[in-house]
Amino acid sequence: MMMLSAKLSAVWALVVKEFQMIWSDPKNRAMILLPPLLMLTIFAFAATFEVNKIAMVIYDKDHSPVSYALVDKIAHTPYVKNIYFVDNPRDLQQKIDTEKAFVALTIPDDFAQKTYLGESPTVQLILDGRKSNTAQVVSGYLTQIFATFQYEINGVATAHSPITLRVRNWFNPNLNYQWYIVISFMGVLISVMMLAITALSVAQEKELGTFDQILVSPLKPFQILIGKTIPAITVAYMDFTIMLIAGHFIFHIPAESGYFLIYACIFVFLLSIAGIGLFISTICNTQQQAIFGVFAFLAPTFLLSGFITPIENMPLILQKFSVINPLTYFFRLARGLFLKDIDMLTIWASVWPLLIISVCTMSFAAWFFNKRIN
Description:
Shape: elongated
Structural class: alpha/beta
Number of strands: 4
Radius of gyration: 28 Å
Low-confidence stretches: 156-161
Number of helices: 14
Oligomer: single chain
Number of domains: 2
């Protein structure tokens, strides 16, 4: 019992020392507390998957009440911000080439005539393919507008069409994209913070020349790693709490599963990231090398997490790598815990891979750390 108490006291002394190193510099305190909230707010408004405020150029050859009605319907949609009118194809092309307009609509001179005869008039729609995803979304918007306009102009109400579609959005009724962005960036930001602190911890000791003092202490390698991990997890929890408060009061994000489950699941995720950060720290001799190692790990981790593109759309070999990516499981957990109120079985399906990743990364970091010491 006395021996266990002595070991715990030694680890606690290292934890206190790590906290003192982190908080002794005012710049470190500012970097820990302010950037997460600032970056979360910026990304929440800057990173959006919504397509609106489109600039459009229209070449109307018909100049009839029917073509004016179509233009008026397009102008009053929430997706179109600016409309330019031109009188020749050259000006239309110039608007697209200079990116002053994203989409161009040409209405033929027989548009009204075919409409009154009950025929289907043909209009030309040109989209800027340099932004392929945006072009697909805009094409869908305008196709729906054209279909609705055709029903209305022929005297057929949309509600009386053969199929009536009533849409309900589960888990995010108002389709607020900020809920998705903020929840996802919580994982990204605490990953960056966790990796930076753990990866720089040992490398900083080596660079300052104080690492030898730790080696001659009675602490064993795994105790040193524990002492390095606890402060990093504590700081990550502080940042996560700040982001949770911002998410609740600024963006009104719900927490359907409760905050206790959220904090418990985040702990497993942080352990998996800590093992990776400590491994990077043990193989690096300087802080600069550690920073490069962090960015080398973060770039593929972020891209393979399913945040930008669905994992199912990736090549099969890259889908295999996503299985060992902690962020993949964080996104599944976070969206379920915040928005869906998922059951324990669904939670466990994402927690047990994180536990395996945590055990593997921490064990490998301890083994490699012990090997470097010997």
